[in-house]
């Protein structure tokens, strides 16, 4: 008896399911800088530089703060990812919900953002009910993408095999790890050339249903 193949769509959140760059990221970055000022006794310039340094080195500012300053990750994430006007700040693709509903199979979110923020964004987008799981940085034990550890935990928790999964991301580093683990990869980008570990590139998610026929 042949087993039925079920595709699993694994979506990044920020700058994939919505555009966080114009409004949300600047606010979160300011909140992180203020947090470093208050808790590490730095001036604004030094706090901003340290925030960027840890993000570039570890993939998330919180990792550097945990390793070098014993900062409580939950307190940091709650303090810096509190966006009261989130509904007004989210930049969404028109018709996003309809597009996601066209995709047959299971749908998961895999984000380096905290779970409370991820859920709030999905609610603001009106798509939270379309996803079986929201797998955030807390679930990876604060080992963010592209660390393979988080990917493996995602697979185990949701009982999926990498070969059945399609990773939709704006980050090449995350897609490179996804491909190495056996996932199909879709890069959300306006770039023209694509590296060999990217199977397809799209300018926005509205193009995704047309790829469904080509993905294994």
Tell me what the structure shows.
This protein is of the alpha/beta class and 216 residues long. The chain folds into 2 domains: 132 residues, Rossmann fold, CATH 3.40.50.1000; 57 residues, DNA polymerase, domain 1, CATH 1.10.150.450. Helix content is 44%, strand content 12%. It has a 6-stranded parallel beta sheet with strand order 3-2-1-4-5-6, sandwiched between helices.
Contiguous uncertain segments of 5+ residues: none
What is the chain-wise order of helices and strands? EHHHHHHEHEHEHEEH
Largest sheet at a glance?
6 strands, parallel
Note the gap between the termini: 20 Å
CATH architecture title of the largest domain: 3-Layer(aba) Sandwich
Looking at the structure, what is the overall shape?
globular
> What value does the Rg take, in angstroms?
18 Å
Count of DSSP strands: 6
Question: How much strand content do the residues show?
Answer: 5-15%
CATH fold-level label of the largest domain:
Rossmann fold
- What count of helical segments does DSSP give? 10
Could you tell me the mean pLDDT? Answer: 94
Architecture blueprint of SSEs:
Layout: E1 8-11, H1 24-40, H2 44-58, H3 61-69, H4 73-80, H5 86-89, H6 96-102, E2 106-110, H7 115-125, E3 133-135, H8 148-158, E4 165-169, H9 172-180, E5 184-188, E6 200-202, H10 208-211
Parallel strand pairs: 1-2, 1-4, 2-3, 4-5, 5-6
Helix pairs in contact: 1-2, 2-3
